[in-house]
Each structure stands twice: as structure tokens, then as C-alpha cells.
Amino acid sequence: MQDIAKAAGVSQSTVSRVLNDTPTSVPIAADTRERVQEVAKRLGYRPNPLARGLRGARTMLLGVIVREITDPFFAMAIEALSTEALARGYNVVLGSAHSKADEAIALRAVLETRHCDAILLLGDMRDEPKFLDDLRASQTPVIALWHGSELEGVPTVNIDNRAGMVAALDHLIDLGHTRIAFVGGRPLGDIRERRTAYSEYLEESGVSVPDEYVQNVSNDPSGGDAALRTLLALDPPPTAVVCSTDHLATGVLHAAGDLGVPVPGALSVVGFDDIPMASFTVPSLTTVRMPVDEMTAVAARLAMDEPEDGGVLESVVLSPSLVIRKSTGPAPG
After folding, report:
1. Looking at residue 332, what is its pLDDT?
2. Which pTM does this prediction carry?
């Protein structure tokens, strides 16, 4: 800052106010601002976020811990979150918890020492109570996304999973399907809510399905592939499958193609999330679309903006929508 002040012919305090965009009682002339910014750029000046944190100022760093970084949905979510953060002048510090408590706790410690202004959790971490307790006890604001139901002591941004599953099942029932199976990953957070909504919907609709129609597998295409092979060996097999994620649905479509089962002629498939790949599968995947951009914008507001009147940060639930493509059709026969 001293070098910039000397080169621009202004005081160091003026440089600080310009670069930090600090409000001043006496406005700084536009040509002075421009001159300071040009000199800063020419000299390669970059603010040190650690130094800013030690002064009590914002570091403009946003910590993000994601549970399943290999899930394409979270890759899409991270991209949307990074875009939203950049628009607000923030940078993202990313870490993957790999579904392990000790790694998540270590990540939390690293993000705190980097003086992140807030930490966002992507995915359900409820089965790691020590990690969550440490976060609650920290001085860093924490926001959880796609965590399922509300998390005590932590503001959340969630999707209405029941509404999404009801929309998917309504669509299949309207097409004449009654033998509808469910393929889900680990029963945590969003996945648990989607499975519960599936069971409750069919029970309330008077549609009886065998216990074997619910398949819990690893949340990846191989899990979806294995689940469909198991389902098609049942007597009678399902005529429709609703999956808790598009990641699983791609595996279901792969198995159907490998086994020569026409989709949607003999089997309808519905996913959940609407990842970019969903419109490029063969056939293109009917799925429940997440309002990812809206959710990340809300999370950014909660993480980066001061709550009004010093109030407590609220939790937010947003609505999904059904996107009908070519993987669903009338029930056979």
C-alpha cells in the first residue's frame, strides 16, 4: 500500500479506502480512484486474506466442505456456488470430507485457520456429530445445503424432497404404472426424505409394492446398474423405477440397455436432481429439477450478508419441478 500511495501521489489511507471500497465522509474523486486502481494493478497488488482476518476485516474467502465430491450433482452445485461467490467478490476454498469424520474435522480446522468468513456444508453430515458439534462451537458462520431436514443450530437451505417425489410418482401413476420401484443411496438427508416420501405416497394411494422394490445401493452408476438387475429378476418385476439421484438413474439406464429392456417401452425411469448429463442419456432422462442457482444464491446471502437487526439466520426450503423427457411412457400392457 505504501508503494501504491507513493506511485499514485496519494496518502496510504486513501489507497486503503479505494482498495477496500470503504465509505468516506468526503467522496474520493473518480480520477483518483482510477489512478490508485491502475497503479495497484500495475504493481501486482493483492490483499492478504490472512492479514485481513487478523485485523477483523472480511477475508472474502468462503469455505466449502462437500460430502460426495464424485457426485456430478455436487460438481454442478460447486460451480454455481463459485459463480455466485465471485459475483460478490469472494473466492471459494474447497475441501472434500470423503464421508469420513476425521477428514471433515481436519478440513474444518484448515478452513478456520484460513480465516474464512463462513463455511458451507454440501450434503448431509448428520452422522458425524463430533464434526457438527465442533462447527457449532466455532465463531465461523455455518450454512448447510442439501442436508435434508433442518439441522439444530445451523441454518439450512433445502429442497422440498416430498414435493419432488410426489411430482415424479404422480407422473408415473398418470401413465398407468403401479409396479414402481425405488433405487436410493445411503439413507441420509435428502435421500432418506425421498425414500420416505415414496413409501408414504404409495401407501396413501393404496398401491402395494413388495419390500424388494426398495433397493439401497451405492450412489453411483454401478449401484444403479446392480439395482435394476436385481429388480428385473423379481416376479413380477417393476414397470417403473424412480431413483433418488440422476447418478443412480444413469446406471439403471445402462443396465436396461445391456439387458435389452426397452426404455420407456417396457420400463420407465425417473431421476432426481437434473444434472447436465440427464438431457444427454439415451433416452433422455425424466427427472426432478433442483433450483440449484436459486439455492446457492440464498446460501450466499445467508453466508455473506449480515442478518438484519442482528437477527438469527433463517432456514429456507425451495420447491423443485418435474422435467419430462423420453425415459418415461405408458405402462406396458
Report:
1. 94
2. 0.78
